[in-house]
Each structure stands twice: as structure tokens, then as C-alpha cells.
Amino acid sequence: MISVLFAVLTALSNGAASVLQRRAASSVPDSASMRLSLFGHLLRQRVWIAGIGLVIVAAVCQAVALATGPIAVVQPIFVIELPATLLLAGFVMHARVPRPIWFAVAMVTCGLALGMASAAPEGGHDTVSGTAWIPALLATTLFEAVLIGAALSTRRDPRAALLGLAAACGYALTAALMKDAMARLEGDGGIAQLFTAWQLYGTAAAGVGALFLLQNALQAGSLVAVQPMLTLGDALISILYGVTLFGEHLRTGWWLVPEAVAVGLIAVGCVQLARSPLASGNPPPPPRVT
Questions:
Q1: 179-197 pLDDT, tens digit each
Q2: How confident is the model over 219-256, as pLDDT tens digits?
Q3: HEC assignment per residue over the chain
């Protein structure tokens, strides 16, 4: 229950951060794309700094969640970040949440429940042997390189989607490294062993890289192109890390059918939610009076 609680808190913080960062990144000129000068533009915007503050809160909550639960359980819970944030935004703006948004929230929620019940993640170990990380890091680097190379040959929403998936891969890697690092606290060396583990510094490097890719994704196109790739990509790649690195088990066979249905529900729901005016930080238009 502790891991689930902190996973939900992580999702809330990350979802709010995405909306704030999208508002900031949308005003950055195209000339700053894939350049460090992008951060120069963003640092001058208080809304972006507020989003980074929420990212830090999310990182702390995520560390607690991963230290107390399997990665294949914790990471998929993050798919609720966007619906929860939009409902919160509607409350803060005193705006009536349209019925399609409620339907989309229900789709994402039901998809998550169906997916978790069907997959039933269990088992696994808390640490990963050093040699097991080598093929995982090589495969991740190759996948990221292909996505970034394809993104640089496109523009607008296609680029945003590809970079969003690359960012998702980076965040999934960050979570896997973080879980492995946090497990060092349970050893004889305690906190000293944590700070001497390369996984801790790998977590920081992967997190910064993922953040850079996400800012470029949000600057390149609309949230509706980025968020589904980010949400589903993070969840699915994290599950892959959980199975291959941490030895966690998922149901297969005919259970793959409801699992695929769950992914479809979440994808459609996320697309509908990302199209909402609330996702850009603006209240929906008032109903027309006839």
C-alpha cells in the first residue's frame, strides 16, 4: 500500500508538471530545438520553474514507491497522472469539466485496473547484477538513438511523438536505476553504499537526459502528440525492465488479450484528455446559451 500511495503522489506531481512545462515550452522559438539554449529560455519562466519543483517532488515520491514495491506495479500506476491533473486543474480554475473528459478519465482508470488485474505482476528481486545492466544499457542506447535520429528528420507532432517516446524510455531507465540504487540502502553499508553505487549517478544522468528530451518534445508539438507516447511508453518499457532485469513475472497466454484491451483503453483515453483545453492550462469555453 505504501508503494501504491507514493506512486499515486508521483503521478499527480508529474502530471501537473507536464502541463506547466508544456505551457512554458510552447513559447520557445524553434531555433532553440535540441540545443542547450532551450533551457535558457525556460529558466526565465516562473511557470517552468514551478513545473521543475513538482518534478523534484515526484522524484522523491517515486524513490519511496520503487523502494517498497515492484517496478512492474509502480510504473504503470503513473498512467493516471494526466486525468488526475486535469480534474485538479478544473477544480482550481473553477471550470466545469466536460462530459467527454469524464469518459476519458473512466477509460484510463478502467484500462489501468484491467491491465493490472490481467498482468498481475509479482515476484522479482530488488537488485540487478552489474553484468545484466550491460545489454540493457546497450539496447536502450540504440533504441534512443534510433528514435532521436528519426525525430530530427521530421517536424511538429511527429517529432514531438518520437521525442516523447524517447523521453519515456529515459524515464523508464531512470526508474529501473533508481530502484536498483535504493536497494543498496538495505545492505550492510547503508547510505554509504548508496552513494558509492554507480546506479545512483546513472539515475541522475538518465533523468536529466529524459528531462531534456521531454522539453524538446513539448516544444516541438502538441501535448496530444507527446502525452500518450510518454504515458504508455514509460509504463510498457518499465514493465519490460521489471521482467528482464528484476525477474518480475506477468501473466501471459490468453491474458494477453485483456492486457491489449487495457492498453487500447489507456491510449484512447490519454489522447482525448490531451486534447482538452485544460491540458494546455486554459479553462474550457463556457457552454453556449440557446
A1: 888 887 776 666 777 788 8
A2: 888 777 887 888 888 888 998 999 899 888 888 889 89
A3: CHHHHHHHHHHHHHHHHHHHHHHHHCCCCHHHCCCCHHHHHHCCCHHHHHHHHHHHHHHHHHHHHHHHCCHHHHHHHHHHHHHHHHHHHHHHCCCCCCHHHHHHHHHHHHHHHHHHHHHCCEECCCCCCHHHHHHHHHHHHHHHHHHHHHHHCCCHHHHHHHHHHHHHHHHHHHHHHHHHHHHHHHCCCCHHHHHCCHHHHHHHHHHHHHHHHHHHHHHHCCHHHHHHHHHHHHHHHHHHHHHHCCCEECCCHHHHHHHHHHHHHHHHHHHHHHCCHHHHCCCCCCCCCC
CB 164 within 8 A of CB 214: yes
pLDDT of residue 269 exceeding 60? yes
pLDDT above 80 (res 23) = no
Q: State how far the Cα of 93 lies from the Cα of 28, in Å rounded to an integer.
A: 25
Q: What are phi and psi of 49, to 5 degrees?
A: -60, -40
pLDDT of residue 290 exceeding 50, the answer is no
Q: Which residues pair with 249 in a beta bridge?
A: 122
Tell me the percentage of the chain whose pLDDT exceeds 70.
88
Q: Check: CB of residue 7 under 8 Å from CB of residue 74.
A: yes
The answer to whether residues 21 and 214 touch, using CB atoms and an 8 Å cutoff, is yes
